[in-house]
Amino acid sequence: SFPGGRRDPADGDAVATALRETREELGVAVAATSVWGQLRTLPDRHGMTVAPVVANLGPLEALTLNPNPDEVEEVFTLPLAHLLREENQGYTHFRTASGYGYTLPVFLNGPHKVWGLTAIITELTLELLVPGCY
């Protein structure tokens, strides 16, 4: 999943929350000027509203991550080329006890399967970054 968490009273907005959470969870200080924008808000499975924020962190090779072990078990990245290959894209179908069904994206063949809200946010980001390719 991506860095995230509840908005603190000191956070001015969703962007400030995202920048703080990224610093607390990954040890990366992202400048507000690196923020590209905010995606539409989404509900999570607990009924909370998630406000995804997209930012440019620069080259990953130049990034020093210092994950907080109390909040982060593992960090991995996936190249854009990997996410755009059709053999790495799929969908998972769910059905609730009431019979309602829904479909969510999933990204395969990496170090981990990317699914759920993380896959939805990834899909929305790909639609914005490479609309002709995804």
Structure description:
The chain has 134 residues and is an alpha+beta fold. The protein has helices at 14-26, 80-84, 116-129; strands at residues 35-38, 42-43, 49-50, 53-55, 89-95, 101-107. The chain has 2 domains: 1-75, no CATH class; 76-133, no CATH class. The chain is built from 3 helices and 6 strands, in the order αββββαββα. The strands form 3 sheets. The protein has a two-stranded antiparallel sheet with strand order 1-4. It has a two-stranded antiparallel ribbon with strand order 2-3. Strands 5-6 form a two-stranded antiparallel ribbon.
Described by strand count, sense and barrel closure, the largest sheet is: 2 strands, antiparallel
Instruction: Kindly name the structural category.
Output: alpha+beta
The separation of the N and C termini measures 21 Å
Beta-strand share of residues: 15-25%
Give me the number of helical elements: 3
Strand arrangement across the biggest beta sheet? 1-4
Query: What order do the SSEs take from the amino end to the carboxyl end, as H and E?
Result: HEEEEHEEH
Mean pLDDT: 94
Total E-strand runs: 6
Helix amount: 10-25%
Coarse morphology: globular
Q: Give me the Rg, rounded.
A: 16 Å
| Overall number of domains | 2
Which regions have little confidence, pLDDT < 50, spanning 5+ residues? none
GO molecular function: coenzyme A diphosphatase activity; metal ion binding
Keywords: Hydrolase, Magnesium, Manganese, Metal-binding
Cofactor: Mg(2+); Mn(2+)
InterPro entries: CoAse (IPR045121), NUDIX_hydrolase-like_dom_sf (IPR015797), NUDIX_hydrolase_dom (IPR000086)
